[in-house]
């Protein structure tokens, strides 16, 4: 029984499987048919789309061909027009060139004819010139070469004279311009430098509170005054002058030390040798400090850098040195300023000029201690402290000990003369001053034909009136030179003296 069921089951299963396979096959056939139909549909659509795109591509191709054909035709038309235009222009140029060629041929023919005519005329002129030269040689008695030499000699003399006159005019013009420029530069330098000078002497006066102080300064048996004189190296002059003692010494530094020591002793009231020694030492220190400060002031005022400290101290010592009543330090500062200002106007090295001006009298700081002139001493000091060759040469040449070779040396020389000779810079004894003026007038009156002479401008100018009937205009120039030369030989004076010769001619008549 179970076998039957199994068999039935197998039969049913086989039938179901057969039915399933049959149904599956039918579905596959139906799907295949649908796929084939779909494929045909897709193929038809593809064919239709391809034909449509083909038609569109053909249309676009035709349109592009048409467009390009139109552009080509247009370009070809433009090129053809341009070619025709160039052909017309070339044709015009050829026609113009032909016309010019014809004109050139005509001009060449005309020129050839003219050249022939000129050659004929030149031959004729040569014949005429030759005949005229022969005639001139017969008349003048000179050959051609002799005549040339004669003419050249005459022309050379005329040209030489004209050149000499012209050179003289140019020299006079440039001399006037140079003098005017020099006066402007010097005037500007003097105006811009306003240094003051104080006159100093070789003695110092110390005021006393009363005359009893004189006895205390002298001391018992003169021990105090001897101590002061021994320690300071100065002479104390105690005379009948009320309430004053005079300190005398050729060395201004010693005199200043003695003056300060005396003032301190008088103020302190304790005057004895030990105290005197103490006060002299203290005054010496103060003077040394003042010397250093004055040297630094001079360097600062002139704006000069790099000076050796010993040079600065020597500059400070010049604060107590005078020359003809003029303070040497102030004079050196003024010379530095003036030289620097003139150097700036001339475009020369200002620093070198100012440095040389400040140091030009440095030898005067120790000229009473060292043998030799202050110029020689100054040169030795400048070399010792490694100053430049330009500064050393300016120091050496500022009094013409050597010939100035540089512009800076000339500027320092001029600035030194300006500072020393300007009115008020140096004090002169009134008696010597009057004698110098009288001598100046006497020298000028010693020449014949002088009516009168007057020294003016503090002896820096002499005005001389000549007799017009004895001295002519030409003689007046020579007379002025002779008087100036004699003044240079016989007189000693600061700066320069202007010799001004005047000649007056009067014409008198009467109306009747």
Which key terms come to mind for this protein?
512 residues, mainly alpha, 3-stranded antiparallel sheet, 3-stranded mixed sheet, 14 helices
Explained architecture:
It contains 14 helices and eight strands. It has helices at residues 2-140, 144-192, 212-218, 223-232, 252-268, 273-302, 309-317, 328-346, 350-359, 374-384, 389-397, 407-421, 430-445, 473-490; strands at 203-207, 235-237, 244-248, 322-323, 326-327, 450-456, 461-466, 498-503. The strands form three sheets. Strands 1-3-2 form a three-stranded antiparallel sheet, with helices on one face. A three-stranded mixed sheet has the order 6-7-8, covered by helices on one side. The radius of gyration is 60 Å and the shape is flat.
């Amino acid at each position: 029984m179970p076998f039957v069921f199994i068999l039935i089951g197998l039969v049913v299963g086989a039938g179901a499987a057969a039915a399933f396979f049959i149904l599956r096959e039918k579905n596959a056939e139906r799907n295949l048919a649908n796929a084939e139909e779909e494929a045909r549909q897709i193929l038809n659509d593809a064919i239709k789309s391809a034909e449509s795109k083909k038609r569109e591509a053909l249309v676009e191709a035709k349109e592009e061909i048409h467009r390009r054909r139109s552009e080509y035709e247009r370009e070809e038309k433009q090129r053809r027009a341009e070619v025709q235009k160039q052909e017309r222009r070339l044709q015009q140029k050829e026609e113009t060139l032909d016309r010019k060629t014809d004109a050139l041929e005509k001009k060449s023919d005309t020129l050839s004819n003219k050249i022939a005519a000129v050659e004929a005329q030149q031959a004729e002129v040569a014949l005429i010139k030759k005949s005229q030269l022969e005639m001139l040689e017969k008349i003048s008695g000179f050959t051609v070469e002799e005549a040339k030499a004669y003419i050249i000699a005459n022309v050379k003399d005329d040209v030489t004279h004209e050149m000499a006159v012209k050179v003289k005019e140019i020299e006079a013009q440039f001399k006037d311009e140079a003098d005017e420029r020099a006066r402007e530069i010097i005037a500007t330098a003097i105006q811009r430098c306003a240094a003051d000078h104080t006159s100093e002497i070789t003695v110092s006066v110390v005021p006393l509170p009363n005359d009893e102080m004189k006895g205390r300064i002298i001391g018992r048996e003169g021990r105090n005054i001897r101590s002061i004189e021994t320690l300071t190296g100065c002479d104390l002059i105690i005379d009948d002058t009320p309430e004053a003692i005079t300190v005398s010494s050729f060395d201004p530094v010693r005199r200043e030390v003695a003056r300060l020591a005396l003032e301190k002793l008088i103020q302190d009231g304790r005057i004895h040798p030990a105290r005197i020694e103490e006060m002299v030492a203290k005054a010496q220190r103060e003077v040394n400090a003042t010397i250093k400060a004055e040297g630094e002031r001079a360097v600062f005022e002139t704006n000069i850098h790099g000076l050796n400290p010993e040079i600065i101290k020597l500059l400070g010592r010049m604060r107590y040195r005078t020359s003809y009543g003029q303070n040497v330090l102030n004079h050196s500062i003024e010379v530095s300023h003036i030289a620097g200002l003139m150097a700036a106007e001339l475009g020369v090295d200002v620093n070198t000029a100012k440095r040389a001006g400040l140091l030009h009298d440095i030898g005067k700081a120790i000229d009473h201690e060292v043998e030799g002139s202050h110029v020689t001493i100054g040169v030795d000091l400048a070399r010792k402290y490694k100053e430049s060759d330009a500064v050393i040469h300016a120091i050496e040449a500022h009094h013409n000990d050597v010939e100035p070779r540089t512009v800076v040396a000339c500027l320092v020389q001029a600035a030194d003369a300006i500072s020393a000779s300007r009115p008020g810079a140096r004090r002169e004894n009134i008696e010597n001053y009057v004698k110098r003026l009288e001598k100046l007038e006497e020298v000028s009156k010693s020449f014949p034909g002088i009516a009168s002479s007057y020294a003016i401008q503090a002896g820096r100018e002499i005005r001389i009136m000549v007799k017009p009937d004895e001295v002519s205009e030409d003689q007046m120039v020579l007379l002025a030179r002779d008087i100036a030369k004699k003044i240079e030989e016989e007189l000693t004076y600061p700066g320069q003296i202007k010799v001004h010769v005047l000649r007056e001619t009067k014409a008198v008549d009467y109306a009747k």
